[in-house]
Design goal:
This protein is of the alpha/beta class and 354 residues long. The protein contains 14 helices and nine strands. The model has no long low-confidence stretch (mean pLDDT 96). It binds nicotinamide-adenine-dinucleotide and zinc ion. The site of nicotinamide-adenine-dinucleotide has 31 residues, from α4, α5 and α9.
Length: 354
């Protein structure tokens, strides 16, 4: 079976394109309705907050992403938004990095689908379209702006709500919005994109669709992280989009599987977790890891080390089982006989090096 997947239908790209947000929303506003802007609280009191085109009964909701999105956080936000007014909002607009983009997607879906967001972690469990939603990245790399998932940590698992309904109706790609991002964070989230490309291109699921996007994204990442360009922010924003398009029709691999384990047990954030894992994966991606190390050196990035040494046996076992449960990722990386190649003992050895 070939996958027949949805993609974001409307995209605006360019420096200053954020200024057109008001016009974009105008045609979605119903009589007496309101919009809800979900803004990363890092922008509280910052110029970007003042540029949010609030009108009438619109609401601005700040979200904190010190922790990556949890299902209970989503459920609380949905209750908060339902309490704001009798009707559902005309639109949800998420402005921030991958975490905020995922929060806004999940909120849009849970405003119309009953129950806890934890019930929908999985594939195609959402049956009712969400509220109209717009995604506006302020940090480039995750591809969350284009993907059909919102990654949530629930009581039992870290798993996305994957569905065609999860996709944004509109995205605004304005490279000016990434100004002010701390260098380490810029690097870690940018490497998420680089690793998407490497894992997609080296995987067994690769095809010309994914290759076309993945190769372009990789080329842009090399320009951003190994050369100097005035329009590096523009390049990385497009690399993120293309990287997301590449994995949409292939899959990620060993690095993402292992980073999910790190994140579930140690609360390590996605970008840095991918870097910590990738740094140890020469045996899977020799050229990619060598280039990654050159990028780290060029930008003087020091990764945290020995983060798994404090774990007890039980925590280590759970981390390994979270990683090995991600079957499609291992199949993409190693082929259909991956279980023979990727044993719990091998995963443990890799984790012990991180
Ligand atoms: P993030 O959204 O977690 O933000 C990282 C930090 O950067 C936060 O402190 C945030 O406040 C800050 N920040 C964001 N924009 C800023 C700006 N312009 N200036 C200053 N600070 C800024 O980081 P991320 O790496 O973009 O996203 C990671 C999240 O994305 C994880 O939750 C991960 O699970 C998710 N993710 C989702 C997908 C998907 O397809 N849905 C793919 C990969 C990752
Ligand atoms: Zn990723």
């Amino acid at each position: 079976m070939f996958r027949n997947f949805a993609i974001v239908p409307r995209i605006i790209f360019g420096r200053g394109s954020f200024n057109q947000l008001d016009d974009i929303l105008e045609e979605k506003r119903g009589a007496g309705g309101f919009m809800v802007f979900i803004l990363d609280d890092v922008f509280k009191g910052q110029p970007l907050e003042g540029r949010v085109p609030l009108k009438g009964d619109d609401k601005l909701v700040h979200v904190n992403v010190d922790n990556e999105p949890k299902t209970r956080y989503i459920d609380a936000l949905v209750e908060q938004i339902k309490g704001l007014s009798k009707g559902s909002p005309d639109g949800i607009i998420g402005i921030g990095g991958g975490s905020t983009l995922d929060i806004a997607k999940a909120v849009s879906l849970l405003l119309t689908n009953p129950g806890s967001s934890a019930h929908y972690q999985g594939w195609d469990l959402i049956t009712i379209p969400g509220v109209y939603k717009v995604g506006i990245p302020t940090l480039s790399g995750t591809g969350a702006e284009i993907s059909r998932t919102t990654i949530l940590t629930g009581p039992e698992k870290k798993l996305g709500i994957n569905s065609d309904y999860t996709i944004y109706d509109q995205i605004v790609l304005d490279p000016e919005l990434v100004n002010g991002i701390p260098k380490d964070q810029w690097f870690y989230t940018g490497m998420d994109c680089y690793i998407h490309d490497v894992e997609s291109l080296a995987g067994t699921f690769i095809n010309q669709f994914s290759r076309a996007y993945g190769e372009k994204s990789l080329e842009l990442c090399r320009q951003v992280f190994l050369e100097d360009h005035d329009d590096a922010a523009d390049k990385l924003m497009m690399a993120s989009y293309f990287g997301g398009m590449s994995i949409a029709y292939s899959q990620v691999g060993a690095c993402h599987a292992l980073s999910y384990g790190l994140s579930f047990i140690l609360d390590v954030h996605h970008g840095i977790g991918c870097c910590i894992a990738f740094d140890q994966l020469e045996e899977f991606y020799p050229e990619g890891v060598a280039e990654f190390k050159a990028m780290m050196e060029r930008h003087q990035i020091e990764l945290p080390r020995n983060i798994t040494t404090s774990l007890n046996d039980d925590e280590m076992d759970r981390m390994i089982s979270v990683a090995l449960a991600l079957e499609p990722l291992w199949e993409n990386c190693l082929g259909s006989n991956w279980r023979e190649l990727m044993t719990p003992e091998r995963a443990r050895k890799l984790y012990e090096r991180m």
